[in-house]
Design goal:
The chain is mostly beta strands. Helices cover about 10% and strands about 55% of the residues. It is built from 1 helix and 8 strands. A 4-stranded antiparallel β-sheet has the order 1-2-3-7, with no helix packed on it. Strands 4, 5, 6 and 8 form a 4-stranded antiparallel β-sheet that branches.
Length: about 120
């Protein structure tokens, strides 16, 4: 009996491994857009991280606007237009959204409403 209790607490307290899986959702003129949804381990919310990657050998300006739908809801939440300048061969542009906080969603869907790339 003691062995079962020890095994139970060992499994309960063991750290859970989280692997990040970036999903490519768009590509245009040498700029790629990736998204990562991270469910919270302590609350019923989902954080969404958007990464922009410039694969060009020159600097670009990217303007994007997106919406996030939480869980199985039909209501999309627009996040507003953003503008960012990316250095050549750069993927350091990260944008964090907490659109799915209060509805108990465990997943989120993202849609690009606007995505323009201009070389500088």
């Amino acid at each position: 009996m003691f062995a079962y209790i020890l095994l139970f607490f060992t499994l309960l307290l063991a750290p859970t491994e989280y692997t990040e899986e970036w999903k490519k959702i768009a590509s245009k003129d040498g700029v790629e857009v990736y998204v990562l949804h991270k469910p919270s381990k302590i609350s019923s919310s989902v954080s969404t991280v958007v990464k922009l990657k410039n694969t060009n050998s020159y600097q670009v300006k990217v303007i994007f606007n997106l919406s996030i739908t939480c869980g199985h809801s039909s209501e999309a939440k627009a996040q507003g237009k953003k503008s960012v300048i990316l250095a050549p061969n750069d993927e350091s542009s990260l944008h964090h959204y907490k659109a799915c906080q209060s509805n108990g969603a465990t997943e989120a869907t993202i849609k690009l409403l606007e995505f323009t790339v201009t070389s500088l």
